[in-house]
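Lab notebook, bench 4. The sequencing result for the construct came back, and we need a structural model before the next group meeting so we can plan mutations. Quick request posted to the team channel:

Model the 3D structure of this chain.
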Amino acid sequence: MQKRQLGATGPVVSAIGLGCMGMSNAYGPADRDESIATVRAAVDAGVTLLDTGDFYGQGHNELLISEAIRGRRDEVLLSVKFGAMRDAEGAFLGFDGRPVAVANSLAYSLQRLGTDHVDVYRPARLDPDVPIEDTIGAIAEQVEKGHVRHIGLSEVGAETIRRAHAVHPIADLQIEYGLLERGVEKEILRTTRELGIGITAYGVLSRGLISATPLAISSGDWRGHTPRFQGDNLRHNAALVEKLGEIARDKGVTVAQLAIAWVAARGEDVVPLVGTSKRARLEEAIGAVDVTFTEQELREIDTVVPVGAAAGTRYPAQQMAMLDSER
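Done. Here's the predicted structure in token form:
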């Protein structure tokens, strides 16, 4: 497995990471045994970066990961998001970035994960009522105590990145980045590179939209509420994926491998996070690590899927309004 460093001050991780959200029923029912087997297969294959959030399944995801890596904690780096509040039905209630919430959330994550430290700890979103300096300062205190190794950010804009980095070095920014979502290239990527901050890119497959098989959305799948997956938008986006599939077939790879490799090719400071709960999909994703492109191939991909080609926003309007990265 190839390696990459998360920013100038962050840890060295595998060239792709495993996003574990889908193992906690975010995209409909997930098989527990298969999810655990997928995490273990990833570690066996040299994938060292596991990404989770304490609100994925209201703690379910962290407990599942704890079981999957039992006896192998030293082989992985745990990236954990916190701060998103949910009710018993799973609805999001907002974000809490207060210093007291940092200490409280981390304590529960350490317990659920069965570990004494988190490798990268980050607020899931910017709390509009709490200065980012206060949130990062509170995480920095946990770094001093040894409970956190590195600090990350998620879905924040350039100004917030600079303010956070002035308090404590930021290892990486987690943000959606892929063939159908390139907003990070406007200003954010330039800022992270100036400051020596890495990128962990989620949504590289546009939440399953970029796939060789037609997307089936079950009743418990939150993607059904997302504009990008609705009506004419979905038909338009599926047509884009079909064109990408033609390029992938000519290259002898799957369309998913093409998309993952494209993100990895954006720079050595970018680590794609591949979200899956199935070993077969994991194996396909790992196969993308060695895929490279010629300049002509990259130009062809840009012609088929230019910046802004996707129809519909990546989140519903209410959630888009919460994204500091979109301001």
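The first strand starts at residue 3 and ends at 5.
Will bring this to the meeting.
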